[in-house]
Design goal:
The protein is α/β, with parallel strands linked by helices. The protein contains seven helices and 13 strands. About 30% of the residues lie in helices and about 25% in strands. It is globular. It catalyses: 2-oxosuccinamate + H2O = oxaloacetate + NH4(+); 2-oxoglutaramate + H2O = 2-oxoglutarate + NH4(+).
Length: about 260
């Protein structure tokens, strides 16, 4: 792994898709201007987050939003992790993250594996499965700096996914996400710390900016986490605390049933 600057974009999302795309494009340019080589956008960066919005904002891939992402990656010569957008494909809807190389080429599409279905009495009920279908593959891409594993929001709650990414050589895990005002303060940072510590990786999350007037209020607090604040290099930590070599594979294992990277 070599050093690089990661830009994490937390942006205001409104009901105007064109404005969301323009805002995202401008912030990617700003991040690149500050030296970022990899830029991460939030979950549902092009549309309001909610089951009532997914179908009306859904696009094919490639489509309007991914065209903007491709151009932004190429114009700024960055690896662009395009948060997520509602995707329509063959009559089904997905929550999908696209990744573009510095030449604008689409190199990865991750469909959210674990759908956000929760019911916290008196606080929040949300059922992505009412409109969305889950993805069925792991998603990893290579950069000159490190290997990156991709999840979307609720995917972060599943430690097995992060462990599989780590075992495939990922040094950075990225999660575009939109935790809410109930789960955000309780679990957002805690989950990131858990994934980073358990797997000796960097973890980055990008959230939409908080909008108290929205039907779904995002927690915000986009973050980049490492396991040990005063230590910068993964190789040193992995050598000094060699948990990968100390796992008891004779007693337990986490395996992937579905192979794939997109």
């Amino acid at each position: 792994m070599t050093g690089f600057r990661l830009g994490v974009v937390q942006l205001q999302v409104t009901g105007a898709k064109a404005d969301n795309l323009s805002r995202a494009r401008g912030l990617v340019k700003e991040a690149a201007g500050k030296g970022s080589k990899v830029v991460l956008l939030p979950e549902c960066f092009n549309s309001p987050y909610g089951t009532s919005f997914f179908s009306s904002y859904a696009e094919r891939i490639p489509g309007e939003s991914t065209q903007v992402l491709s151009e932004a990656a190429r114009e700024n010569k960055v690896y662009l992790v395009g948060g997520s957008i509602p995707e329509e494909d063959d009559g089904k809807l997905y929550n999908s993250c696209t990744v573009f190389a510095p030449d604008g080429e689409l190199i990865l599409k991750h469909r959210k594996i674990h759908l956000f279905d929760i019911d916290v009495p008196g606080k929040i009920r949300f059922q992505e499965s009412e409109t969305l279908s889950p993805g069925d593959s792991l998603s990893v891409f290579e950069t000159p700096f490190c290997k990156v594993g991709v999840g979307i929001c609720y995917d972060m709650r599943f430690a097995e996914l992060a462990q599989l990414y780590s075992r495939r050589g990922c040094q950075l895990l990225v999660y575009p996400g939109a935790f809410n005002m109930t789960t955000g303060p309780a679990h957002w940072e805690l989950l990131q710390r858990g994934r980073a510590l358990d797997n000796q990786v960097y973890v980055a999350t990008a959230s939409p900016a908080r909008d108290e007037t929205a039907s779904y209020v995002a927690w915000g607090h986009s973050t980049v986490l490492i396991m040990w604040a005063e230590r910068r290099y993964l190789a040193d930590i992995r050598q000094q605390i060699p948990i990968a070599a100390q796992r008891r594979d004779d007693l337990y294992a986490v395996t992937s049933v579905q192979e794939g990277s997109g």
